[in-house]
């Protein structure tokens, strides 16, 4: 399978990465090289094989459903590029 | 001063216990060495000198009171991937500009609880994506090793390039590192140091910037097997904050060093004998086999038939998980923000400016293989092949093999700016061909220096163990270390 330039742009959009035409073209080549490389997996017979979900055989540990942390809004927004009154600030989304 | 920095962790511990030196003296010696050499190597991106001296003083005070942790007073470097409270933590990415976490990773907290001293944060490939440390936003790291008779700069490997270079150049006593496809073992091999990727689940991943969650594991890089065992003892723990950390006691790793390997079965997989492998690597592998035979181990030829599919599987699974993990970097909660026409444009501009080429490449691949209509063909198939790769190892271990001996890397360190690698991402990916299988199966793997190639550069051998058999790896890798000796670069800086 190889990707065309429109697919590269569509995937970049899905991934929220701005791309120029020139970059999209370069990425098309790189993507196709990598997809060509992984193509060899098609020769493996995977009939009846379970997909791996965890490398370690273990039951998922669950913690008690209780509040263990909180009341630290100021710490949570302390690294935000823009915040006000302990809220994250974003460009206007509703007109 | 320079004598102090040449001490291993175990040697420094002995002198600290005897009262011959203090942690403050040891820490000052390292800070002086960093001050003199870091510009050359670019191994540290932040040096926390004041904090280091404070921690060293506190350690000396604890020692005076008889409170002595397993790493009491030992100065360490920390890979930039680990969250360190109030200190630069950016995974060497532009997108985390100015990020200083309000919390501490579990692994580093374990180290501080055991008395260690932090010297600073170490350079790495951006988000641990790379095999040469060249994808770092902060520029490449230089390997303290150079080819005999040459002044050209070589890469220290990656992604833990700063960790490996700082250990080899004696700019820290030991360093934390992480390994998703070979990022501890490959740089260790390139710098003549020892690195272990423990079993998946042995170290908590909490507070480590996530790359590929089902593969990432933390581990140490240090100067010899004993030091690595001492460090892992402290780093490993079960952690409520990471549900994939495994609830089993951490053994006394150091105690197994020096035990005989008589009767141990060492497997040698034929699939690791790849086309075009340099003669030097073949020779060092053969030498390793001889050392084990001489030490009384039984050598058995084994087959791991799905080996060749590990790397292509990795390049589906790892980017898929990365594209999901890196979705959180959106210019809202932390790090860089670039303004845009609207919120979507803001996301897109921020991520395009904040991520480097390799990271963007992997996000795109990951997004593609997970996108509607392709999931089954790529991701699901890769996870099935992964089951087969793991089964290969299980079969071999079920046949009585205790550990598997392979080369660590298909070459020694290469030049910074290698054009072939730069122009072909797949060629760079081949660096991990011997290490990546271990991550796919969640097994422990250790890289130990075993000799020099004809260019005078270190080569490593890798031992792969059963799940949670780190003790056997320390026991067995000590044989290589004793036979090969230790490797220190000639000081040119």
Which labels suit this protein?
heterodimer; A: 95 residues; mainly alpha; Histone, subunit A; two-stranded antiparallel sheet; 3 helices; B: 493 residues; alpha/beta; Amidase signature (AS) enzymes; eleven-stranded mixed β-sheet; 17 helices; 11 strands
Can you list the strand order of the major beta sheet of chain A? 1-2
| Mean pLDDT score of chain A | 92
Q: CATH H-level name of the domain at 5-42 in chain A... which superfamily?
A: Glu-tRNAGln amidotransferase C subunit, N-terminal domain
CATH class descriptor name of the domain at 5-42 in chain A = Mainly Alpha
Low-confidence stretches of chain B: none
Q: Report the major sheet of chain A.
A: 2 strands, antiparallel
Instruction: Provide a count of the helices of chain B.
Output: 17
What's the main sheet of chain B like? 11 strands, mixed
Describe what you observe in this structure:
Chain A is mainly alpha-helical. Chain A has a domain at 5-42: Histone, subunit A. Chain A has 3 helices and 2 strands; from the N terminus they run H-H-H-E-E. The longest helix of chain A has 18 residues, at 21-38. The two termini of chain A are 42 Å apart. Chain B is 40% helix and 13% strand. Chain B contains 17 helices and 11 strands. In chain B, strands 1-3-2-4-6-5-10-11-9-7-8 form an 11-stranded mixed beta sheet, with helices on both faces. In chain B, a hairpin with a 5-residue loop joins strand 10 (445-452) and strand 11 (458-465). In chain B, helix 3 (23-41) packs antiparallel against helix 4 (49-64), helix 6 (161-168) runs parallel beside helix 7 and helix 10 packs across helix 13. The model of chain B has no long low-confidence stretch (mean pLDDT 96). At the A-B interface, helix 1 and helix 2 of A face helix 10, helix 11, helix 12, helix 13 and helix 15 of B.
């Amino acid at each position: 399978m190889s990707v065309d330039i429109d697919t590269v742009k569509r995937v970049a959009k899905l991934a929220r990465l701005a791309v120029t035409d020139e970059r999209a073209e370069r990425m098309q080549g790189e993507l196709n090289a990598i997809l060509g490389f992984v193509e060899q997996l098609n020769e493996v017979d995977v009939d009846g094989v379970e997909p791996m979900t965890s490398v370690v055989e273990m039951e998922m540990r669950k913690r008690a459903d209780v509040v263990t942390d909180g009341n630290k809004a100021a710490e949570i927004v302390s690294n935000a590029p823009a915040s006000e009154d302990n809220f994250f600030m974003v460009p206007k989304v509703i007109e | 001063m320079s004598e102090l920095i040449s001490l291993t962790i175990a040697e420094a511990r002995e002198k600290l216990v005897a009262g011959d030196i203090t942690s403050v003296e040891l820490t000052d010696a390292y800070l002086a060495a960093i001050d003199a050499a870091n510009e050359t190597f670019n191994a540290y991106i932040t040096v926390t000198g004041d904090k280091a001296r404070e921690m060293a003083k506190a350690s000396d005070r604890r020692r005076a009171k008889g409170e002595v942790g397993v790493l009491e007073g030992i100065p360490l470097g920390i890979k930039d991937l680990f969250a360190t409270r109030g200190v630069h933590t950016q995974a060497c990415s532009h997108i985390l500009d100015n990020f200083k976490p309000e919390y501490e990773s579990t692994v580093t907290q374990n180290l501080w609880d055991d008395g260690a001293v932090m010297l600073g944060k170490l350079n790495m490939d951006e988000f641990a994506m790379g095999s040469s440390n060249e994808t770092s936003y902060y520029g490449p790291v230089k390997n303290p090793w150079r080819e005999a008779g040459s002044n050209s700069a070589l890469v220290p490997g990656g992604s833990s390039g700063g960790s490996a270079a700082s250990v080899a150049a004696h700019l820290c006593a030991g360093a934390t590192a992480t390994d998703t496809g070979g990022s501890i073992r490959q740089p260790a091999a390139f710098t003549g140091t020892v690195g272990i990727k423990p079993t998946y689940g042995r170290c908590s991943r909490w507070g480590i910037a996530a790359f590929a969650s089902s593969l990432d594991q933390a581990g140490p890089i240090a100067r010899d097997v004993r030091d690595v065992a001492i460090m892992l003892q402290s780093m490993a723990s079960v952690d409520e904050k990471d549900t994939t950390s495994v609830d089993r006691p951490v053994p006394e790793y150091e105690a197994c060093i020096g035990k005989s390997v008589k009767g141990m079965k060492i497997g040698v997989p034929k699939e690791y004998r790849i086309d075009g492998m340099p003669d030097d690597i073949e020779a060092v592998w053969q030498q390793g086999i001889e050392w084990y035979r001489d030490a009384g181990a039984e050598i058995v030829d084994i087959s791991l038939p799905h080996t060749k599919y590990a790397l292509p599987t990795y390049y589906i699974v790892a980017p898929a998980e990365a594209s999901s993990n890196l979705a959180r970097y959106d210019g809202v909660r932390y790090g860089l923000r670039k303004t845009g026409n609207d919120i979507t444009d803001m996301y897109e501009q921020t991520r395009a400016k904040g991520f480097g080429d390799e990271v963007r490449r992997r996000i795109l691949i990951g997004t593609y293989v997970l996108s509607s209509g392709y999931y089954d063909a790529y991701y699901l198939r890769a996870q099935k092949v992964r089951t087969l790769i793991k089964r290969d190892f299980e079969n071999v271990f079920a046949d009585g093999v205790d550990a598997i001996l392979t080369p660590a890397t298909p070459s020694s360190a290469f030049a910074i700016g290698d054009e072939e690698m730069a122009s072909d991402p797949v060629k760079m990916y081949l660096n991990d061909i011997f290490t990546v299988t271990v991550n796919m199966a969640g097994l422990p793997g250790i890289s130990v220096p075993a000799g020099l190639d004809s260019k005078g550069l270190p080569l490593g051998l890798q031992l792969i163990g059963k799940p949670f058999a780190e003790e056997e790896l320390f026991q067995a890798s000590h044989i290589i270390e004793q036979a090969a000796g230790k490797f220190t670069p000639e000081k040119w800086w």
